[in-house]
Structure formats: structure tokens, C-alpha cells
Design a protein that fits this description.
The chain is mainly alpha-helical and 175 residues long. The protein has 6 helices and no strands. Helix content is 70%, strand content 0%. Helix 2 packs antiparallel against helix 3 (57-105).
Length: 175
């Protein structure tokens, strides 16, 4: 099939059920999401402005406990979000894709195709999509390997160095 024929076939399939397709695409966009964000932060002070010398041991303990509590809450929220994605959004994504595949051949695809990921093979769908997400995440980490290796090299160099300027160079490298 040539590109022009394939394009015509897709246009016809899309226009047969235009508003349903728009709704399914909207649901798919919400559940899959972009995951991207941008932002910036600035600091008006330098790191030497942070002086913990006036804090008592009790204040430092309270600060550490509060930070651990914040990290624990963030961790629980992240685990909850991953579970929602794995058990709800991923099967819904499979249903949306199934709707579009059915729409290529059927004259009027039904919206109940959205539930296809929740049908009898739900465990397989959820597991497969989770493993796909895990695999993509792990492959995404490969870009951080040079940074990690460089950081470990700096740590080893810093630990073995007797030079007083090593601390300054170490801080500059990570700033």
C-alpha cells in the first residue's frame, strides 16, 4: 500500500467517527500525559549564607526528622501515582489504542472498546505495560552513566587528595 492510499484510508476512518475519535484521543492524552515540565529556580544568597551554627542539637534533630517525613510523604505519593498508572491508566491506554485499531475496519467503532484493557486479560495487560514502562525508564537512565562515573571519580579523587583546594574544586564541580 502506498503512502497516499494509507493516508486516505486513515482519513476516511477518522471522519467516520470524528467526535468519538476526538474524545478517545482526549482521554488518551490525559492518561498518557506528556510528563514534561520546565521551570527555573534562582537563589539570591550563596551557600555560605546557610549557617546552622546557632541551632541546638534538638533543633537539628527536629529539622532532620521533618525532612525525613517530607521525603517519606513524597515517596508514598510517588508509589501511589505509579500504582494508579499501572492498574488504571495503562489498561485504559490499551483500550484507546484498541478503539483506534477497530476504527480502521469498522464503520462505527463503539466506545466500549475503551474497557478492553480491563477485560479477562487485565493482569497480562497491566503487567506487560508496567514492564514496558520499567524498561523504558531503565533505558532512560543510561544517559546518566557518564555523570555518575564522573562523580564517583571526583569522590575518589577528593578522598585520596591531601590538597586543601580539593574541597573547592569538588564543590565547583557539582555547582
Amino acid at each position: 500500500m502506498e503512502r497516499a492510499q494509507l493516508k486516505e484510508w486513515a482519513k476516511e476512518a477518522f471522519h467516520r467517527s470524528y467526535w468519538k475519535s476526538v474524545l478517545v484521543a482526549f482521554i488518551l492524552a490525559i492518561t498518557v500525559g506528556s510528563g514534561g515540565s520546565s521551570g527555573s529556580s534562582s537563589s539570591s544568597g550563596s551557600s555560605s549564607d546557610m549557617n546552622f551554627g546557632h541551632m541546638t542539637e534538638e533543633d537539628i534533630t527536629i529539622f532532620i526528622v521533618a525532612m525525613l517525613l517530607v521525603f517519606a510523604v513524597i515517596g508514598v505519593i510517588c508509589i501511589f501515582a505509579m500504582a494508579i498508572k499501572a492498574f488504571v491508566f495503562n489498561p485504559l491506554q490499551v483500550g484507546c489504542q484498541s478503539y483506534f485499531c477497530k476504527g480502521l475496519n469498522d464503520v462505527n467503532p463503539q466506545l466500549n472498546e475503551l474497557g478492553r484493557g480491563f477485560k479477562p486479560n487485565y493482569k497480562n495487560v497491566a503487567l506487560t505495560m508496567f514492564l514496558k514502562d520499567l524498561y523504558l525508564w531503565l533505558w532512560g537512565l543510561i544517559g546518566y552513566v557518564p555523570t555518575f562515573v564522573g562523580a564517583m571519580g571526583l569522590v575518589v579523587w577528593f578522598m585520596m587528595s591531601e590538597d586543601s583546594n580539593a574541597v573547592i574544586l569538588f564543590v565547583i564541580a557539582f555547582v
